[in-house]
């Protein structure tokens, strides 16, 4: 068995709200193997967002361990976490979070600007390559407001790919998109997962989206209530083809 | 983290907000330009006052006889009837003084100057050729008299503008004409340039200047001299020159240590220092007002940077989530502030110099752009950038990435 991308053991996270202590995660354990496409499901209040923050190294567990690519996240300082995020994680957000009035290329280059090991020539080449990987090679000079929602999200995916992370972490990445565009994005992610072996963790509350992944972890009240392999992974490409033509306007 | 990358990040951020960056800069531009222009006006007027005073012969030293003795029943003698200054004093000063560049004896008399049918009451001043140097008084026409004229007591003279206007008709060239002063014929060899009134309202152009020997022998019939005019090396050494001249004259007059001086040495230093301190005050006042506007500009930067941090919270969250450390964010905002203030400073310097030139061009006020005022205002605005940019930048760097990302 290859190295695990994510290894979580008995992870707890508590918040102090005045005198009360809110236990958002009450002892969660799971692993993510390289090349998996995992969805984390759960309704609001399930601890899903807290799980996402910890997986994304934006937050640290109160108890338990979280190893990301063999690194114990709980022991790192604020600055070390930032470097870890830069090297190992690619974020895709619900609201794209592209910099306004900044070209697609410069948006994609952004993570590499915070990595001093990358020269400015490499930075340009890798950003162009990442944009080509999301099929936006002909839009590198477009500004976000000149792109559709789906295209903007593809720029965001390119930005997540550009630093060659061990894991792409998507937070409701299709939440702002219509069905057709959602399928397009899911098709792209499936392609990256199946053809290039990218490990993807997708946090969502839509069961529809979960069907595209290879594994689903369901949270409720801060605990894992279900962790199952998906026997019938649906192909987003096929779903897209089956959509009525009338919807394509 | 490479500094170059941080500068690139800051530049891109500023490019995205050109208008806001410019408006922020405007405070600094106006502040710096105001400091430079105001100080230039202040310095310029100080310089022009000093020039004016110098043209009056600001380093001129006047020596007059003074009464140190009494006659008869204890009445002191009037200075003009004293005969304590002699040509030996002139020679002693010429030989011994080190802070004096030129010295001239002076004797004067009032009388009527006549040219044909026109006449005018005026003063004849008998001096040596150095007198014109001491007074900083160029000729408008003709030539000055020389030591030869002095040695032979030649009847030549230079006349002032007021005299020219009163005894010569329009268009008539005075040079080469013979005029009479108290019936003695003088040949006019030069015309003095116009000097106007002195500080006490006396018309300095109402004068005839002739060799002192001529006036001594042919008009006054006296062997002594009435005044001595001398010029110090420069304004600042006039006090030293005064002390030196006093010592030389005391020795020349063989005064005992207990005797009072039998002469008076006067300089124009007091007059100059009064004028200078007034214009100095003006400069300081103008600079203070301009300095306040520079501080206001700095506060403008801080204000905009704070607003900018709040407005760009989500951007900061994103940057942090993709790997920007707190220190990277701190430097980004700090560099933005410094870029704004330095660019503003450069534009301000150019604008300030241009404004000073325009003031000179259109209002014909003298201005003097000093290097120190440029350096100072530029330094102040760079420091302003760091100082007022630091707190907003620190605020940005301490944001929690989770909260910042969720910020709407």
From TrEMBL, chain A:
PROSITE patterns: ABC_TRANSPORTER_1, ABC_TRANSPORTER_2. GO terms for cellular component: membrane protein complex; plasma membrane. One of its GO terms (molecular function) is ATP binding. Pfam families: ABC_tran (PF00005). Residues 6-246 form the ABC transporter domain. Keywords: ATP-binding, Nucleotide-binding, Transport. Belongs to the ABC transporter superfamily. Macrolide exporter (TC 3.A.1.122) family. This is ABC transporter ATP-binding protein. It comes from Niastella vici.
UniProtKB/TrEMBL annotation, chain B:
GO terms for molecular function: transmembrane transporter activity. It is a multi-pass membrane protein. Residues 22-247 form the MacB-like periplasmic core domain. This is Multidrug ABC transporter substrate-binding protein. It is found in: Cell membrane. Residues 288-401 form the ABC3 transporter permease C-terminal domain. Keywords: Cell membrane, Membrane, Transmembrane, Transmembrane helix. It comes from the Bacteria. The chain crosses the membrane at residues 21-42, 281-308, 329-353, 373-391. The keyword Cell membrane applies. Its main location: membrane. InterPro entries: ABC3_permease_C (IPR003838), MacB_PCD (IPR025857), Macrolide_Exporter_MacB (IPR050250). One of its GO terms (cellular component) is plasma membrane. It holds the Pfam family FtsX. Belongs to the ABC-4 integral membrane protein family.
